[in-house]
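Input/output pair, single chain:
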Amino acid sequence: MNNSADEERIRLIPLKRYDREQFIKDNQEAFKYGAMEEFGLRDDHFEEDGEIISRETIERCIDDPYSETYRIVLGKRNVGGIIVHIDPETNHNELEIMFIAPNEHSKGIGQAAWWEIEALHPETEVWETCTPYFEIRNIHFYVNCLGFHIVEFFNSKHPDPNYPSENSDDEHDGMFRFEKVMKQE
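Output:
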């Protein structure tokens, strides 16, 4: 017997092979929505073919052997997705991608999904993630809702050492890096 509380509970379901293509499309739609809200039809923040986040980037994250990819499910509906990279040697883990369907924003779904991730990985000492400078909604979410701290800002004067580029218009230019310390070393 299902009660309505169970139907409204956020669940993380490992990504199924048959859902991979839709997961990628849903991810791109959610990221594009944020950029379009901020910039309109300007295309200078897009990685490929009008997408904020490229298929290649998403697939690289999904296919990483240390990554876990989940659908965020509310009731019976897919309402988002999350990919985390788990480093079992250092316990310094990374939130690589998290998205919520635009029509599901501001309902506490992202926060509930994140608490599920933290519960799945109590061994984590530090969580890390990045977001572009223009994603004010994400910055608010990571800092004010989840307890992350901004620790670095990558830009032309301080490039991301993981993505060296001579081009100041690089996709990693203008990115905030966040950390959430879970355990003191």
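Confidence is low (pLDDT under 50) at residues 42-48. Strands lie at 10-14, 67-74, 77-85, 92-100, 126-132, 149-154, 175-181.
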